[in-house]
């Protein structure tokens, strides 16, 4: 078995583990700090909306050795508006994609002619395409509608399949992931395109999947939690995170690898704009989703659950038992992460006596048989 597989088995059995729930205030503080930074960045800098949302023109040039900075300068001088230039390909075979927002058909023809002149190519080789803002607005409106319906259905399903506390925690984790992803776009200045919106909607499902895996384990292990006095709800919640930790990490890494390939190879080297837009939001969102499922969702469920009177009483009994065991110098069997099922036997159950089964004696069996050789 590999080292990672051995670690996963030990985590599942409870031989090792990290107290995620016990240190939840640290993770809450980190998440709050990141979220505030994202919101401030969004409020101060705003989003760099793509041409699909603003309207304008997109120009594609033939092969040219002109740099991106030079082409951007030429486009801004010709149009009088900000321009975004992407280099597609590499070397002398590279072509340029130039976006200029806020121009109409007449201005687009003028800009196309001036670009051809300054780039040293034929005017007919510079192709232009006008993009209206209405299309981007329709995409954005549909995305908001889809997001609202998705969140409502998710909360209803989780409340029915699990309980309302888990539904609330999953909802908070989803908002956390969206806020961080959008905030990074604002802080770094990444362009927001319809591909970005598609990527944002895609990460919601993945983030929810990872969270539900932990919730399912937690639900299974807390069925009869009030019938024992060895673990609190937070202990079992921590066990659920540890038992699924390697699975969550493996799933995240496997998901991030192809997305990273799309981002750095497809978008970086090949210059595929749509791939770059989708993969960038996916990459940031997948990482945020993995973080929230481990450090936010489950600890938040434990906080909400331990407000219940039953869980408060259970915690008091567990702590009293541990204190009593410590006073007698005993080693209490109170490990937060174990693999023993709950409610199967009482705490003071006597160990089973191992020995031969009681069997009725067979009459006459072996009686009168002398030892030694037969005569």
CATH topology of the largest domain: Multidrug efflux transporter AcrB transmembrane fold
Radius of gyration: 32 Å
CATH architecture of the largest domain: Up-down Bundle
Estimated share of beta-strand residues: 5-15%
Note down, in words, how this protein is organized.
The chain is an alpha+beta fold and 375 residues long. It has two domains: 21-49 and 135-310, Multidrug efflux transporter AcrB transmembrane domain (Multidrug efflux transporter AcrB transmembrane fold), CATH 1.20.1640; 56-131, ACT domain (Alpha-Beta Plaits), CATH 3.30.70.260. 62% of the residues lie in helices and 7% in strands. It has a four-stranded antiparallel beta sheet. Strands 1-6 form a two-stranded parallel sheet. Helix 6 packs antiparallel against helix 7 (164-188), helix 6 (133-161) packs parallel to helix 8 and helix 7 (164-188) runs antiparallel to helix 8. It is elongated and about 90 Å long. The model is unreliable at 334-341 and 343-375 (pLDDT under 50). The chain crosses the membrane at residues 26-44, 143-160, 167-190, 196-218, 249-272, 278-302. It is a multi-pass membrane protein. Forms a complex with SecD. Part of the essential Sec protein translocation apparatus which comprises SecA, SecYEG and auxiliary proteins SecDF. Other proteins may also be involved.
């Amino acid at each position: 078995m590999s080292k990672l597989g051995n670690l996963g088995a030990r985590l599942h059995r409870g031989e090792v583990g990290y107290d995620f729930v016990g240190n939840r205030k640290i993770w809450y503080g980190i998440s709050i700090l990141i979220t505030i930074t994202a919101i401030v960045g969004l409020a101060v800098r705003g989003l760099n909306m793509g041409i699909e949302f603003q309207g304008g023109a997109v120009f594609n040039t033939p092969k040219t050795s002109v740099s991106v900075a030079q082409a951007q300068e030429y486009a801004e001088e010709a149009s009088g508006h900000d321009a975004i230039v992407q280099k597609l390909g590499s070397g002398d075979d590279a072509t340029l994609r130039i976006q200029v927002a806020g121009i109409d058909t007449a201005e687009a023809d003028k800009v196309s002619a001036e670009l051809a002149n300054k780039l040293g190519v034929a005017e007919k080789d510079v192709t232009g395409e006008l993009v209206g803002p209405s299309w981007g607005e329709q995409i954005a409106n549909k995305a908001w509608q889809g997001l609202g319906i998705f969140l409502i259905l998710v909360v209803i399903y989780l409340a029915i399949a699990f309980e309302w506390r888990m539904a609330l925690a999953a909802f908070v984790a989803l908002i956390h992931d969206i806020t961080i992803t959008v905030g990074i776009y604002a802080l770094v200045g990444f362009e927001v395109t319809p591909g970005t919106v598609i990527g944002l909607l895609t990460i919601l499902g993945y983030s929810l999947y990872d969270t539900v895996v932990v919730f399912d384990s937690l639900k299974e292990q807390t069925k009869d939690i009030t019938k024992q006095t060895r673990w609190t709800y937070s202990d079992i919640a921590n066990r659920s995170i540890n038992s699924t930790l390697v699975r969550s990490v493996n799933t995240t890494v496997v998901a991030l690898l192809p997305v990273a390939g799309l981002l750095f190879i497809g978008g970086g080297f090949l210059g595929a704009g749509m791939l770059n837009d989708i993969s960038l939001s996916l990459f940031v969102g997948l990482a945020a989703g993995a973080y929230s499922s481990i450090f936010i969702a489950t600890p938040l469920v434990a906080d909400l659950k331990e407000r219940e009177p039953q869980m408060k009483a259970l915690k008091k009994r567990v702590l009293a038992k541990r204190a009593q065991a410590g006073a007698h110098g005993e080693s209490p069997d109170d490990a937060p992460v174990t693999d023993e099922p709950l409610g199967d036997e009482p705490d003071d159950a006597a160990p089973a006596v191992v020995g031969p089964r009681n069997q009725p004696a067979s009459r006459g069996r072996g009686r009168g048989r002398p030892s030694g050789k037969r005569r």
